[in-house]
Write a structure and sequence with these properties.
558 residues; mainly alpha; rod-shaped
């Protein structure tokens, strides 16, 4: 009873602490992707080391080359690596490119360097400076390979201006310019290129045709093996398409995919993880929302992406305040749980002490029962021994009773037979006396034939009677003798002198005088027979006659 009570309290404690019982959770693709994202976040340092190694390699290559044109190209690669990673370094790289282009007197490379600087200024929120810089570049003087870059820079710049404009009229004006430069990008990019597919999908999203955007990007992703950065751009554009379709689950999956690719490519200027944090906040997952937002803010701060920091500042304080309140709530719940645990622990301790006291009582009672059982077993053993002795005595009495009955019956028959023979003998003598045949009378009186005949009949009757009562006596008696010393009668169903002596002993007649009188032998003869047979005993010769007296009857008298 006490154990059941303790178990019930433990179950109650578990339910109280967890605050809920067992629940079923259906895993979804978004759950699997979320687990991958958390794994990637835990390995951010590893991906950043890869990024730094690549940057070091490019810096070393730039320092090692003496070819200024190759030096410019390496700086271009270095700028592209720094652009989404560290804005200040990207600005310095673009300035170094301008200096190098001026030294070379190469107007094309100078325009390329200024487009690089305009892009990084736009990324850091310096829209006016970026616009002045890019407007100072004449499109008709640019080589064809820089046209796409020029249109991309203007489209990105006007899109940022539209997003952060406070005037609806200006916002619409900038959106119109953005659409125009998007069309210009489509006109100069190869229709089979990744840039064309991405820009086309962006155009469909902007025009309210997300299904066409999804069709373009999913087909392109199925046919091409994209790198992490390109995959991040595709996944983010697809998330925007599914947002417009109202498919929040698929939207979240693509947001998570974009965030995973952003972190794997170790960029710091991104939007996917921040938007995912906002989505998680709306769905009540405050812990993850706070964690992801903190990472996004930290990366934006390190990259000096000022416009991202401004965007994040609109959401981060709200999530942070709610997170702090949630932490306080958890602390209150923790205190409540600790109090409950303490109370339950005291109750459990009291129950344990009570159970221990009860167990001691039970152990004491058990010892008393065991002692009583032990005494009862001893009494049972004594009773069994007494019953065994009573059974032996009963069997002995039964044997004696049957022996008496048998011998009384045979004794009465023998007496009647002897009376008839004595009467016949009397008549014979009377006839001889009346006829005066004194000589025949003398012969009859002196003859022992009748006595010998009667003794033989008497012994045959004794043998038959004894063996009917003890049918296995001869075999049992010989089993007490040494091998090869067995005593066997001349004829089956009879006894010889040695066997008759021990038959009388089995019947309780142990006095040699009585045995000698019964068998009509001298006492010394009987003694010699008994001594001779004892010497043949298998075990202790002095115990032979006692063992003979214990020989049992094997069957009832017929």
């Amino acid at each position: 009873m006490e154990n059941k009570l303790i178990i019930s309290i433990i179950i109650f404690l578990a339910i109280t602490i967890t605050g809920c019982g067992p629940s079923d959770r259906n895993e979804s693709p978004a759950d699997d992707l979320m687990a991958q994202l958390e794994d990637v976040i835990s390995r951010r340092d590893e991906f950043q080391r890869i990024k730094e190694t690549k940057l070091d390699s490019l810096r070393n290559a730039a320092a090692a080359t003496n070819d200024q044109q190759q030096h410019f190209q390496i700086l271009n690669e270095l700028f592209n690596e720094y652009l989404p990673y560290l804005a200040d370094s990207a600005v310095n790289i673009s300035l170094r490119q301008e200096d190098l282009a001026e030294c070379l007197g190469d107007s094309d490379r100078l325009a390329n360097a200024r487009l690089n600087r305009a892009n990084i200024l736009s990324a850091t929120g310096m829209y006016s400076e970026a616009l002045d810089l890019v407007n100072g570049i004449r499109l008709e003087l640019l080589p064809d390979y820089l046209h796409a870059y020029y249109f991309h820079t203007k489209r990105t710049l006007y899109d940022n201006l539209a997003n952060y404009s406070t005037s609806n009229a200006r916002r619409l004006h900038y959106y119109k310019l953005t659409d125009g430069y998007r069309d210009s990008l489509l006109s100069v990019n190869d229709p089979e290129s990744f840039a064309f597919a991405l820009i086309k999908a962006d155009k469909y999203n902007s025009s309210g045709n997300p299904a066409e955007a999804i069709d373009i990007l999913e087909n392109y992703m199925a046919d091409h093996n994209l790198g992490e950065r390109d995959h991040a751009l595709c996944a983010w554009t697809l998330s925007e398409s599914y947002r417009q379709l109202g498919d929040s689950n698929t939207q979240r999956q693509h947001m998570i995919e974009a965030a995973i690719s952003d972190l794997k490519s170790s960029v710091r200027e991104y939007v996917a993880l921040w938007q995912l944090a906002k989505d998680l906040y709306r769905h009540g997952d405050i812990d993850r929302a706070y964690h992801f937002m903190a990472i996004a803010v930290d990366d934006a701060s390190k990259s000096s992406a000022r416009h991202r920091i401004i965007e994040f500042n609109d959401t981060y304080p709200l999530i942070n305040s709610i997170y702090v309140e949630t932490v306080k709530k958890h602390q209150r719940e923790l205190i409540r749980t600790i109090v409950i645990i303490t109370v339950l622990a005291v109750l459990l301790l009291a129950l344990l002490l009570f159970s221990r006291k009860q167990m001691k009582r039970i152990a004491k009672a058990r010892r008393m029962v065991e002692a009583a059982n032990s005494r009862l077993n001893e009494l049972n053993e004594k009773l069994s021994a007494s019953n065994s002795r009573l059974e032996d005595a009963y069997n002995a009495i039964s044997d004696i009773s049957e022996l008496k009955e048998a011998y009384i019956g045979r004794y009465m028959d023998q007496c009647l037979n002897y009376i008839e023979k004595l009467d016949s003998y009397r008549k014979s003598i009377s006839k001889l006396v009346n006829s005066g045949k004194s000589d025949d009378l003398k012969k009859l009186v002196k003859s022992s034939a009748m006595i010998d005949q009667e003794l033989k009949a008497f012994y045959d009757q004794f043998d038959h009677t004894f063996l009917s009562l003890f049918p296995t006596f001869i075999d049992d008696f010989n089993a007490l003798l040494q091998p090869g010393e067995e005593i066997l009668p001349k004829q089956p169903g009879t006894l010889n002198t040695e066997l008759r002596i021990y038959a009388l002993i089995r019947l309780g007649i142990t006095d040699s005088d009585k045995i000698a009188a019964f068998l009509r032998y001298s006492i010394s003869t009987i003694y010699n027979y008994r001594t001779k047979v004892r010497n043949k005993a298998r075990g202790d010769r002095n115990q032979l006659e006692a063992m003979v007296m214990n020989l049992s009857r094997r069957q009832k008298m017929q």
